[in-house]
Amino acid sequence: MNYASVIETPIGRLSILADEDFVHAVTFEEKDIADLIENELTIKVANQLKAYFNGKLRDFDFPMKQKGTGFQQEVWQNLLTIPFGETTSYAKFSAHNPLAIRAIAAANGKNNIAIVVPCHRVIGSNGKLVGYAGGLWRKQWLLQHEREVAKKGQTELKF
After folding, report:
1. For a designed S-S bond to 68, which of 72, 107, 132, 157 qualifies (C-beta 3.0 to 4.6 A apart)?
2. Strands 12-18 and 3-9: what pairing?
3. Total-model pTM
């Protein structure tokens, strides 16, 4: 059986999709979840995301499993090693396999567990924000939020 929770955040509605054991998606995309109910896992994730947005949580601790190739799974695992409040470039992120930079970027773009698997922390080599399925404005908000929470400086004024 599948379950879902939806939360409102400062950057839009997030849908959390799971089965009994694992979260499969945290997404800004509109999903048809009319006949799905919440379960203990989706409620836990919703509470952790609320704490993240309130600046009270940096690390998530719930079981997750995305569908993907072994290569994609490896990329998503590597994303989890990027520290809260920090960024890395695609070039640095793929330094262990520089010939695969495009494949790594593509795998990053297929991440279905937004925020938790922090693909938003990967930026262009020139320091510019590039590629985020949720929109660059959300990526900018998330990076700024994490820097402020981590006390690593504010990048611009929030209104």
Report:
1. 72
2. antiparallel
3. 0.90
